[in-house]
Amino acid sequence: MHGGSSRRRPISLFVLAMMNTAVVVGLEGLPEVGQFGLPLIIYYAIFTLIFFLPVGLVAAELGVGWPHDGGVYRWIREALGERWAFVGIWCQWLQILIWYPTVLAVCAVSLAYAIDPSLRDTAIFVVGASLAVFWIATIINFRGLHFSGWLTTLFLYAGTLLPVGLAIGLAMWWVGSGRESAIELSWPALIPKIDSIGEVVAIAAIFSFLSGLEVNAVHFRHVRDPQKSIPRGLLVSGLLVLGISVLGALSVAVLVPLEQIDLAGGTLQVFSKVFNSLGIGWLVKILAILALAGMVGHIMVWVIGPTESLRVAANDGLIPPTFQKTTPGGAPKNVMLLQAVVVSLLCLLMLFFDLNRIFYFLTIASAQVYLVMYLLMFISVIVLRVVQPDVPRAFVIPGGNAGLWLVAGGGGLAAAAGIIIMFWPPSTKTISMDWVWFTIPLMVTFVVLVSAPLVLYHFRNPDWRGRPGMPGTDETRAGWKRAD
User: Fold this and answer.
1) Domains in the chain, ordered, with CATH?
2) CB-based contact 291:120 (threshold 8 Å)
3) Tell me, what DSSP letter sits at residue 281?
């Protein structure tokens, strides 16, 4: 850590809660969750309890106990060794890699609404816009011209929370003024009606939309009275994420008929329906530009995200020297180039397959890979409580060993169950896929992605260790500090 970081002012409960909310909530998941209708309230409440809050509590204990560079990589290495630490950050990086095309599709559809809504159905435009946004973001970071923290935060709030808040308000006005809702709004409709395992699989995609809280772990040690403030902050964050995500998804469900929901542009469909009916359709273009800015803000935060963990892994000799090279601005040059090439290839899939199916497949694949990292993180906090009990922790998971096993053990079981159940093909009213085109490709993808770091670790070269590492987060991004 840099000296300036240790002297910074304490973070307030409100700021911590808003930071957690901003890093988790996004536009890309609202249409996919909106297809569940009113029962999504129950689904989100369950996932918040079994996953979101455990991730926050575990990341808080690990973040204040081992506040060193490297984040998740450092935590897992302390508990399980270099091999599994490498698997953890590999899965973290790949999750981001697989996630990019979904958020880029939202960028492309937002741009289409700002220009000509009919372009959202043109695959060439969607792919071209997605590639343009990502390569521009990569080049900006590649050259070391990084957005400052306040500008990135402005993009996230103005382009995510503002449109979602407006969509919620419009849906409430629509229903309140006596207009017809696209879903049934009644107490009986709140009760989930799960008719197949395939529907459970689709629900499991919520894992992906409640992930990312561990990236703020670096900030937890800057909270005043962490033992009390962190649980309160996580509770407030959970309520905010639950409220914004649920109401945002419901705004899509209320205003857009189920069979018409576009997974990449559902939120903008809300604005289009309401504003066009009022004769002010031109406002949709403004909201589309804001949504585009919000998605760009997300990408700017994440595009160089693996840098810190990769830097520490590079010092341990786990990464070939060619991927340790950085630009004068401090970006991992060849890692980002490789990332851009892979993302480009994934985006090209949208030229040959239905966008909704590609969107869903990539969402599930990224969630599974990410859950592997979370499983290792949950195991690590239990192991470290046993093997390193004397390490000072400004915050520990409440409840002693029972609380530890309830939170970390329960979270680990939820993560493992999520990985397994998501192999089953989805079967809902909006999307249905069979074993041949879903399960088999997903299994192959999962096995290849998770086994790759084990193979790379086995064939690592001892000469890679001790070379100049990549710069730390403080040297690569001003203002917005990540733990991972």
Assistant:
1) 3-465 (1.20.1740.10)
2) no
3) T
Planar angle of CA 349, 333, 473, nearest 5 degrees: 105
Distance CA 143, CA 129 (A): 21
Tokens of 104: 């880029």
pLDDT in tens, 347-356: 888 788 777 7
Task: In whole angstroms, give the CA distance from residue 484 to residue 416.
Answer: 22
* 8 A C-beta contact, residue 477 and residue 141: no
- Give per-residue burial for 101-131: e unless 16+ CB within 10 Å, then b: bbbbbbbbbbbbbbeebebbeeeebbbebbb
Cβ-contact 479, 150 below 8 angstroms: yes
Cβ(71)–Cβ(472) under 8 Å?
A: no
Six-digit token pair at 343? Answer: 């993302």
Tell me the torsion sign for CA atoms 186, 191, 195, 198: positive
Q: What does pTM read for this prediction? A: 0.82
Q: What is the DSSP string of 375-444?
A: HHHHHHHHHHHHH-TTS--S---SSHHHHHIIIIIHHHHHHHHHHHHTTSPPB-SS-B--IIIIIHHHHH
Residues 186-226 pLDDT 10s? 888 888 877 666 667 778 878 877 887 776 665 666 777 77
- Amino acid 201 reads V
Distance (Å, whole) CA 231 – CA 228: 6
The backbone torsions φ and ψ at residue 192, rounded to the nearest 5 degrees and listed phi first, read -60, 140
